[in-house]
């Protein structure tokens, strides 16, 4: 990836003031109460000299990064080199909505949800020579400014997680690419762990993507579908972020990949008539509704909230599991109401099925589940 779920693998360094446990704290030299703490922080000690223990690439690996690899045979896309974004994937012909753009098995895989640097290095070392060369040719978000990240780990974090955070931070700020930095930049969630895919890793990010990726648990492969119609010569993009994140949250998460997003949802925010300004309002409202409809409330309030969420996601150009799950939730909500409306439930479930089939494939678990709901509501309508 530019170089990830829907990242793929979420980093353990969450931004301050974000929902959830704050794993790291960033001290400020402008805060008199924290100034003495800042002076006592030894970054090398914090990292535990992880830079010395994480394996670096050799010069031959660096040389492969400037070359555009051969595009695998396919009817839809080709690799292209962009001057400011590296290797990207573009449509070489029109791609219809719901088309399967690519499906592939992992190039390498780590079957641990909370992987460490040594797990990644061992997996890379086991690769055949050709696959190892492919892995080292992928993008690496190393060389980042360590001052942009929190400098202290929260004392309540378990020691194992502290070590993992230190390793990730060391790989991200190292002067050379490492197995871990490449893995973190390109890995996608894959059942109990994460995996790197040679082609899928080349898709760049957009907060309003035109394609959707997911791991198919039946075929055991990563699939990427066109979530809307894509024109010839249009870049094919995926989203590495939670779709309900606000602008600042998205930029925080994306900086871990070493870039600043400049998609239409992230620019011209001060222009009230721009898409970016409208997007910021929609995402704020989506996050608000997502939290509000997750807690018990009146039937009418929850239903109105979920219907509004579907409308906002459509306006924003968001699809995938977030939209499909919302439609299916609406269907079940009205079907289980005190006075059930199976006609309404059937329409909502049909919408969910359409989204799942388009973005995940008809043989995905979610599409199969939605199809069962559609049939069940049809039976109820006939009674």
From TrEMBL:
Bias (Basic and acidic residues) ranges: 23-53
Region described as Disordered: spans on this chain: 1-74
Matching SMART domains: SET
Domain of life: Eukaryota
PROSITE patterns: SET (PS50280)
Pfam families named among the record's database cross-references: SET
Family matches, as InterPro entries: SET_dom, SET_dom_sf, SET_domain_protein
Residue ranges of every copy of the SET domain listed in the record: 75-241
CDD domains in UniProt: SET_SMYD
Name of this protein: SET domain-containing protein
Protein's organism: Venturia effusa
Species lineage: Eukaryota, Fungi, Dikarya, Ascomycota, Pezizomycotina
């Amino acid at each position: 990836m530019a170089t990830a779920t829907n990242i793929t693998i979420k980093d353990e360094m969450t931004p301050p003031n974000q929902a959830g446990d704050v794993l790291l704290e960033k001290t400020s030299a402008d805060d008199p109460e924290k100034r003495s703490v800042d002076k006592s922080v030894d970054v090398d000690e914090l990292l535990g000299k992880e830079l010395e223990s994480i394996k670096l690439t050799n010069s031959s690996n660096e040389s492969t990064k400037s070359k555009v690899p051969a595009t695998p045979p396919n009817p839809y896309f080709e690799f292209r080199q962009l001057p400011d974004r590296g290797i990207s994937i573009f449509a070489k012909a029109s791609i219809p909505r719901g088309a399967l753009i690519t499906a592939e098995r992992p190039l390498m895989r780590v079957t641990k949800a909370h992987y460490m640097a040594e797990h990644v290095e061992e997996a890379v070392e086991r690769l055949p020579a050709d696959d190892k060369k492919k892995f080292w040719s992928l993008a690496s978000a190393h060389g980042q400014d360590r001052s942009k990240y929190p400098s202290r780990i929260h004392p309540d974090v378990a020691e194992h997680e502290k070590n993992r955070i230190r390793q990730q931070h060391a790989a991200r700020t190292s002067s050379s690419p490492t197995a871990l930095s490449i893995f973190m930049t390109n890995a996608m969630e894959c059942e109990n762990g994460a995996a790197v895919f040679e082609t899928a890793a080349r898709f760049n990010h957009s907060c309003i993507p035109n394609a959707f990726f997911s791991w198919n648990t039946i075929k055991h492969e990563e699939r990427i579908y066109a979530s809307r119609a894509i024109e010839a010569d249009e870049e094919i993009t995926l989203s590495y972020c939670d779709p309900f994140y606000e602008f600042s949250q998205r930029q925080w998460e994306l900086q871990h990949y070493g870039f600043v997003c400049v998609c239409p949802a992230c620019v011209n925010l001060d222009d009230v008539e721009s898409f970016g300004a409208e997007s910021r309002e929609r995402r704020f409202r989506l996050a608000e509704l997502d939290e509000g409809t997750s807690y018990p409330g009146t039937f009418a309030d929850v239903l109105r909230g979920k219907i509004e969420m579907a409308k906002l996601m459509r306006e924003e150009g968001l699809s995938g599991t977030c939209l499909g799950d919302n439609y299916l939730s609406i269907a079940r909500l009205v079907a289980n109401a005190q006075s059930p409306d199976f006609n309404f439930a059937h329409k909502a479930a049909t919408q969910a099925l359409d989204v799942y089939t388009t973005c995940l494939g008809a043989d995905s678990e979610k599409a199969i589940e939605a199809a069962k709901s559609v049939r069940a509501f049809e039976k109820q309508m006939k009674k």
